[in-house]
Every structure is written in structure tokens, then in C-alpha cells.
Amino acid sequence: MSALREKILDTATNLFKTRGINATGVDTIVSVAGTTKMTLYKYFHTKEALIMAVLQKSQQDFQDWLNNKLSNQKPTDKIQRLFDFIEEWISSPSFNGIGFIKASAEFPQEDNPIHRLSSQQSDEFRQFISQLAREAHIKDADGLALQLSLLFEGAAQAEQMQRGCGAIKYAKKAAKILIDGASKK
């Protein structure tokens, strides 16, 4: 990836997280990135393409970070430690919410490509949790994954709206109860 493309992508990521996607125009992105519209459109043919690239990179960065955190854990410990690491991520000063939730709110039409990508990313994360549950020999892995993803998304949304509100701590406690209960079946 060229350095200029990466700079545009990083600039858009930061602006979308702090100002919102629809509130951030292409003029602002190129001004902050120190480039031109022509250069932006060379790498991203439309603003929609830029938004999609931001969502994909943000989700991949989070997933890589989480995979790294879980890499040295035993399969049965991965599902147990999942919310420890989610709490760490949400508690970090750089946390600004979950990209796919914010994007789906700004693009609520289900046939919109950005909304579809957001939905896909939510599904992929739920599948990731389901795989962790299967590795831990939990019978209803998909059911547990749905419950845990609801806790994760809800706590993240609450913590984005009001930092330090305690939502992630209670979600972590609820996750432990759900995981322990699913492990005994």
C-alpha cells in the first residue's frame, strides 16, 4: 500500500471516528491529509469506497489485535478470556466505538453497501466467537456467540456514549455467567 493511500485512509479513519462519517466531507479529509481530491479519488474512486476501506481496515486491525491477545491461550481459556481483552480494548483512550455499529447507524438502509458491510462484519465477529466456543467444546456455540456478541456490542455502545459508565464491567460479569452455564451443558 502506498504511503499516501495509507495516510488518506488513516486520516479518514480518525475523522470518521471523531466527527462521524456523513459529517466528514471529502474536502476535510484531503485538507487534513495534506493532499488533493484528485489523489484521494485515484486511490478511492468514491467516498463510499473510502468508507468501505476504512471499515475493512478498522475491523481487520481489531481482529488482528484480538487474535494476537488470544494466540497464547488454551482453547478452553480463549472464550473465558475474550471479555478480558474486549474490556482492555474498550477501556483504552483510543476507543471510539465499533465502526460497523456507527456505520450502520449512519447508513440504515439495508440495501446500502455500507450497511451490508457493517452487517457482514457483525456476523463475522459473531462467527469468530462461535468458533472460540466450539474450540472450548460448548454445545450451543452459535447461541452463546449471539449472546456474547449482544453483550459486546451493547457494552461498547454504552461505553462510547458515556466513558467509564461500567457497562463493560457488567457485560464481562454477564459473559462469565453465560460461558460458565454453556460449559456445563
How does this structure look, described?
By secondary structure, this protein is mainly alpha-helical. It has two domains: 1-45, Orthogonal Bundle (Arc Repressor Mutant, subunit A); 48-184, Tetracycline Repressor, domain 2, CATH 1.10.357. It has nine helices and no strands. The chain has helices at 3-19, 26-33, 37-43, 47-70, 75-91, 99-106, 113-135, 141-161, 167-184. Helix 4 runs parallel beside helix 7 (113-135) and helix 8 (141-161) runs antiparallel to helix 9. The chain is elongated and about 60 Å long. The termini are far apart. The model has no long low-confidence stretch (mean pLDDT 95).
Give the gist of this structure.
The chain has 185 residues and is mainly α. Helix content is 77%, strand content 0%.
Major beta sheet summary: none
What's the N-to-C terminus distance?
A: 47 Å
Work out the count of structural domains: 2
What is the residue-mean pLDDT, rounded to a whole number?
Answer: 95
Please supply descriptive tags for the structure shown above:
9 helices; single chain; mainly alpha; Arc Repressor Mutant, subunit A; Tetracycline Repressor, domain 2
